[in-house]
Amino acid sequence: MWRRSPRTQAAPTPGAIANRGDLPAAAAGTITLGAELVVNRLGFGAMRITGKGIFGPPADRPEALRVLRRSVELGVDFIDTADSYGPHISEELIAEALHPYPRGLVIATKAGFHRPGPGLWTMRGRPKHLRAQLYGSLRRLKLDRIELWQLHRVDPKVPADAQFEALASAVSDGLVRHVGLSEVSVAQIEQARRFVPIASVQNRFNLVDGTWDVVVDYCEREGIAFIPWHPLSAGKLDAAEAAPRRRLELMASRHGASVNQIAIAWLLARSPVMLPIPGTSNVNHLDENVGASRIALTTDEMRELAGG
Question: 35 Cβ partners below 8 Å, 6+ apart?
Fold first, then answer.
């Protein structure tokens, strides 16, 4: 049976995220989740610290733990994970690496998938299942409240209203502070907002995939954080057609940056409500990704990257 565990936090130390203004991840500025939860606008996605196919333990567990600890050292104070990553492995590693959590660290997690095997994802949005996943996340993360709990998908086999009511119930019961949605349309966001305030939307979005442009614009108008998953296109950036790829390379050369850094910088410049969460299982890649927070693209450079 799930039981509440005390929310413990380490005392701030020199260089801790409590002093976020002096750390690399702070260079991109901050964003507010809900009405009061302020985080740096470059987070970390903890999906890839698990095994192949986002299933089972990582091939290099010590490196996964180092990545998590290094992210906080760099000023990352928003870590995104999910019950389904592993499953459970990502949440367990976060607690192992970072608990007791430093002041200011926000851990967001998600529910709504069943994982029968590597690379296999089955939606399960029944309210009882969502609540069971929430209890599991609280236990594994050693928290008595999730600061941002997200519905991983709106399960078409379950009435959407029932799923949104489950989110609202978690808030009213004090188990969740803010809620978010993932892979949703504007219509679905508006439907959910009839039941509970929506603090964030997490849809696939990157430099070469603007499918959800209309949702980004809606979130900007409504003051909802937009968390782009697949922010580096996971290799598809390298397979982009020659002209866009060349534009990226030229921009990277101009800024003394990598192509991936320019891709992250583009997201940060795309909208003030954008909260990128590039993930990795490698400390060197993490350092590179966070370095993108210092790159400020101009309007002309954004237009140039778009081929205009």
Answer: none
